DNA sequence: CCAGACGTTGTT
DNA sequence: GTCTGG
DNA sequence: CCAGACGTTGTT
DNA sequence: GTCTGG
């Protein structure tokens, strides 16, 4: 019976941050979100507790932040821009398991340019190679040559052409649909290098906290927040053609090196049913828009933006899965199986929808 | 002019 | 590469 | 997205 | 805490 199990509730990230180890004041200021302002030369070993003002609508409330360090307390004006840690969720993991031939057929690919094998991947993470569909004129073709629709594998995490090394790619895994046309890192690719990234569905992690157990009485035992992975996929089982951009990059110091092909996933608002638990999702391109989306000759940002339509409510399934997906070392169909009773220490007792 | 960023997620 | 901030 | 590391000195 | 690697 799961009816007596504590009900999980969605909580926001803590506004109190505890840091331990050897830190300077800069670390603490960073921990509480200040990226600018007065500095202090104090250093030391031990643990600190820092608190910061609550942020609403992207701006800090008025007031002061207190940073206590043993007997010393520093106050700082709370007027600086706040920077959050990587506590949120986005499209950072997905599954793509269609076989090569299925992809070639489904997307009416003209040229199979994907070297090597295309293996089902139930745990795609940033920096991995992913199958992609794109349209591009042949390498040595004269101007005006027709673009050819091709299947390739790309590295997830877009590396802009100006990057000194490819490490920036792991931070360029998503592009917001609302701003992608104007961001320096993306707009060139948005105009000329769009692609489709086939997916079965994507993962997202809820931050869960069990409600207080009355049996514990006055003891306010603070439980560690737990993250529960969910898999989200189209109800009809159709392939998700995620809107993507690709880029070609070559190290500056090695003209003979091969071009590195990289990509990013465009995100958009999630419809209400999904938005109750998570307000962003990958942008999906409808089949009747695939041709236009892939057309490298369509470069007007307004026209391209017109192809991007947020998903309709009620079209996706979302259900909890095993925490095995947390580790990129795990891979297999079991990662997208609904979590069974007993999985994850009973964090969740069933589907939300 | 040069230096430095170039991105996303979240909202008690 | 190109834009913003100082 | 999560997991896991997170540094320096010197140089037989 | 922040950053990198997968």
Structural write-up:
- The chain is mainly β and 353 residues long.
- The protein has two domains: 19-84, no CATH class; 89-202 and 237-317, Alpha-Beta Complex (hypothetical protein yedk fold), CATH 3.90.1680.
- 10% of the residues lie in helices and 34% in strands.
- The chain has six helices and 20 strands.
- The protein has helices spanning 25-32, 100-106, 187-192, 272-275, 290-294, 301-305, and strands at 8-10, 16-24, 43-51, 55-56, 59-60, 64-69, 72-77, 94-96, 111-112, 121-124, 129-136, 148-156, 174-176, 194-199, 201-210, 226-234, 240-249, 260-269, 280-282, 316-320.
- The strands form four sheets. Strands 1, 8, 10, 15, 16 and 20 form a six-stranded antiparallel β-sheet that branches.
- A hairpin with a 2-residue loop joins strand 6 (64-69) and strand 7 (72-77).
- The radius of gyration is 23 Å and the shape is globular.
- Mean pLDDT is 73; it is low at 1-88, 212-222 and 344-353.
- The chain binds four DNA strands through strand 2, helix 1, strand 4, strand 13 and strand 15.
- Residues 342-353 have a biased composition (Polar residues).
